[in-house]
Amino acid sequence: xPQSSSITPSTRFRRLRYNPRIRDLVRQSHVHKSDFLYPLxxxxxxxxxxxxxxxxxxxxxxxxxxxxxxxxxxRLGIVGIVLFGIxxxxxxxxxxxxxxxxxxxxxxxxxxxxxxxxxxxxxxxFCEYTSHGHCGILDSKLQSVDNDxxxxxxxxxxxxxxxxxxxxxxPSASMDGMxxxxxxxxxxxxxxxxxxxxxxxxxxxxxYGPFRDVAESAPSFGDRRSYQQxxxxxxxxxxxxxxxxxxxxxxxxVKPALAFLDIIHDLAQSTLLPIAVYNxxxxxxxLKAAQRAGVIDYARVLHENLIAFKRAGASxxxxxxxxxxxxxxxxD
Length: 332
Known about the structure:
Layout: H1 20-26, E1 36-43, E2 49-52, E3 55-61, H2 63-76, E4 80-86, H3 103-114, E5 119-124, E6 138-139, E7 144-145, H4 147-164, E8 168-171, H5 178-188, E9 197-202, H6 209-215, H7 234-247, E10 251-255, H8 261-270, E11 275-279, H9 281-293, H10 298-312, E12 316-319, H11 322-327
């Protein structure tokens, strides 16, 4: 007969794992309904709810459909949305973004009148409004966006959205100084009370592909690497967010989320501001493809991803999975 070992572990972690209720008691990271913001895409017209082939369950919606969707979000307990616009008119300067009656401003007014408790965060960028698909006014010599000319129009766009009733401004244009310019524009126009959630570390990522389908914002030439963050530079990524904090950002964001958990963690250790993450379209599309292929336990993998965001230090999760995460019982 083999002799039993006389070795006794000095620490028994399993004591807190046998009983599932005790596991819950000592769990360190939790996902709550109130952590989520849900992206919505409003387009011109009526009776439109057009599913995006690369993002099953995500739609371009006209205003009437958006209002029905907001009713469903409120029923589920989702506290807020991030609103993107798909205008009918695009030009070189993205002039529709500066129209106080554009589709996004109109949508904000309607949502806030029908669902005043729903937090409406508005994306501030020009890529959805420009005919060339870049994030501001072009500099023909550089073949890139003119940073400083774009700052002025970002401020004007933000003030229009604030006047329409937006609860939070979320600039995503990746211009140097954009938070300071928007903060100054808002403050001087009577909107000093509105917070800014900056896309403060926004990588030039290949995970954005499906978003460009739904937002119709793919650049017509080149790419955005001359102004979005290099995926290889961790210190620079941290620096960008901390500069936005100095300029007046109230919430800092890392985008994408899943491939950049190290950046989320480093940023959370370096600031006292809340951290948001954008669980982007490519991350969503890959998980949906794996679900359709039957190669993963979809609900459990989704839960692991969401827990990873919280464990890394995120307070806010912008995700296309938000509704189903609640419906699947993955949230407290």
